[in-house]
Amino acid sequence: MRKTKLITILSLSVVLIMALTACGAPKPYSNIKLDDYVKVGKYKGLEVKSFKVKVTDKDVNEQIKANRQNAQKTEESKEGTVKKGDTVNIDFVGKIDGKEFEGGTGQGQTLTIGSGQFIDGFESGLIGVKVGDKKTLNLTFPKDYNNKDVAGKDVTFDVTVNSKQISVVPELNEEFVKDQMKNADTKKKVKTVAEYKEYVKDDLKKQKKEEGINEQKSYLWNEVVTASTVQKDDKKKEKYPEEQIKKVEEQITTQYKDYAKQNNMELKEFLEQQMQMDQKTFKKQVKEYAKSVVKEDMIVMAIAEKENIEVSSDEYEKFIADQLKSYGYTEESYKEQTGKTFEEANGEETIMSQIYKDKVLDFILDNAKVVDKLSKK
User: Fold this and answer.
1) Residues 180-195: pLDDT tens digits?
2) CATH number, domain at 313?
3) CATH code of the domain in which 159 resides
């Protein structure tokens, strides 16, 4: 059986930063002489390809269409016909040998056609029925039906379709614009459709610029990591600070134990059933992943040390507040939902590592040569 690699999944875990905390977090790797473990490659004067930001009217219209779709509401309709997949409201009366039976009658019940909630023929028999109409269904209960009193018997259902749910997509008008701008992060006054289109265009430009910058940073960081090497011991084996390796391993293992618990499983069972992996393979992959995390962290901190890059308490607090906002949380709502603060979930050092990495990436990009064409492939 195929064994699933952890790396793409695990890489998400170290950047889950969504909770407010106090200032004064410890500086990562401050107790380690980094030169003993890592040799940083070239990180200043690297080439990176330029990019252009272009937003067309088509882009704007497609985004507005998506915004309207996301804002659609479900309403009850007294018109139309029943189709597969529709959710309808029905009344029904069931009779066996002309007599009503227990559990065979219902009023105002919600049913999604095709869900298999009722016996065979009930839901499919309503397809094509007009809302407001009544239809008689002549059916038979399965022989293995859980109610032995009706199992295998012929039954008649008189069904009335009261209404069906329909999705209503809002029109592009000033009312829609007003609704969209309620929680928008902008100081601009946007009231008309024309102003809204301009706002969407500016927002798309901002997004594309951020995407372009992030791609540049990703490219440059890959260059730096590739050019950097982990120091080796007398036996020619790579050296890593064991305390840091162990910390990452414990963090990832705990996370997967939580995943298992959420699925009412032990870790061993979860790995075997959900990831087609035994514990030995899991530990091996976690070890390798921990090495890659620690290597990158050491490169970050080595560059920060050489370039005198520091993180202030204000930057620390702002970063976390921004992360909370981006995920739609306040400090209170996050703790209420998760039952944990960020320190309890990930630790202050993890936050600091991420902030240092962001600042180091900014530094590398600021000191890069932006060119239209790279001198190497």
Assistant:
1) 999 888 888 999 999 9
2) 1.10.3120
3) 3.10.50.40
